[in-house]
Amino acid sequence: MAAALSALNAKIRSHPYLSYFCSTHFWGPASNFGIPLAAIADFKKDPELISGRMTTALTLYSATFMRYSMAVTPRNYLLFACHFINFGSQATQGVRFLQYWNYGGREEALKLRAQAKESIETAEKKGKNILKQGQAEAMGVKDKVMK
Fold first, then answer.
1. Which region, left, alpha or beta, applies to residue 31 given φ > 0 means left and ψ of -120 to 50 means alpha?
2. Which residue ranges in the chain fall short of pLDDT 70?
């Protein structure tokens, strides 16, 4: 059994693409891609949920490891791409955070929510009035039919 595994490992390592696919140079960045994908998915979420400290930490982390991915031998371009995308998405989240908390975005969002709430209340009142009118008309028709 050990000989078979050793032969399989030798066959994998002799093929450059399979050797790369079975290495940490591939699986490290591949598993790390969850971080930028999550940041990109968060673009649609409310900026109130963004953590400024975590966004700053992830931006610095990606900037550091972009440099590291080019310093190792052989250069790890997949790791560089992962951290490049993460750096960009975290920087975008950072801009959203700053705009929301420091540059009037929160006040604008609160104003829009208040307007939406007011519109909903107005629509509810109109709907109730229409319902009352319909019920009154139905009662009038019923009274005519019963006579």
1. alpha
2. 8-25
